[in-house]
């Protein structure tokens, strides 16, 4: 369980929240309750993808992320604009650790602007800082 000090930092830093296993789990539960957990799942998948060393594994993961989150009508489609989607698709011709960077940044900004303030006002968060 995070310290009160740690949990309080999450109000101002989505990055710190996502880097803390407990914070991430709590945030994902909150997003699940709002039916918007695909954003956090996509962010986590991108973080995992960037750590992949093998080009073969990278290509496999890139396809999985694309199929699950990016393509139109994907089961967990994230809300990104057409330009970002086009850039991401172009990047996947030759997958590299930065292939999803633009899309990941957009989703991070969306969570920071939208989901984080709602999370901070939620019961999930208030339970943590009690």
Provide a descriptive summary of the structure in words.
The structure is a single chain. The chain is an all-alpha fold and 130 residues long. The chain folds into two domains: 47 residues, Regulator of G-protein Signalling 4, domain 1 (Orthogonal Bundle); 76 residues, Orthogonal Bundle (Regulator of G-protein Signalling 4, domain 2).
CATH homologous superfamily descriptor of the largest domain: Regulator of G-protein Signalling 4, domain 2
- Termini, distance in Å? 12 Å
Which percent range describes the beta-strand content?
under 5%
Overall body shape = elongated
How many structural domains does the protein architecture include?
2
Q: What pattern of helices and strands is seen along the backbone?
A: HHHHHHHH
Quick one: how many beta strands? 0
Mind telling me the C-alpha Rg? 15 Å
Mean pLDDT comes to 96
CATH architecture grouping of the largest domain: Orthogonal Bundle
How many DSSP helices? Answer: 8
CATH fold field value of the largest domain: Regulator of G-protein Signalling 4, domain 2
- Look at the helices and sheets and give the structural class: mainly alpha
**Spans of 5+ residues with little confidence (pLDDT < 50)?**
none
Outline the biggest β-sheet.
none
Q: Would you state the CATH class of the largest domain? A: Mainly Alpha
Considering DSSP H and I runs of 4 or more, what fraction of the residues is helical?
over 70%
InterPro entries: RGS, RGS_RGS5, RGS_sf, RGS_subdom1/3, RGS_subdomain_2
Protein name: Regulator of G-protein signaling 5
Keywords: Cytoplasm, Membrane, Signal transduction inhibitor
Subcellular location: Cytoplasm; Membrane
């Amino acid at each position: 369980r995070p310290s009160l000090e740690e949990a309080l930092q999450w109000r101002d830093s989505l990055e710190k929240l996502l880097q803390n296993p407990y914070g991430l789990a709590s945030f994902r539960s909150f997003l699940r309750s709002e039916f918007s957990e695909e954003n956090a799942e996509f962010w986590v998948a991108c973080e995992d993808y960037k750590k992949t060393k093998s080009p073969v594994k990278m290509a496999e993961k890139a396809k999985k992320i694309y199929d699950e989150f990016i393509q139109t009508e994907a089961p967990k489609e994230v809300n990104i604009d057409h330009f970002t989607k086009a850039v991401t698709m172009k990047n996947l011709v030759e997958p590299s650790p930065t292939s999803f960077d633009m899309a990941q940044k957009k989703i991070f900004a969306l969570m920071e602007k939208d989901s984080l303030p709602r999370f901070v006002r939620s019961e999930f968060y208030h339970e943590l800082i009690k």
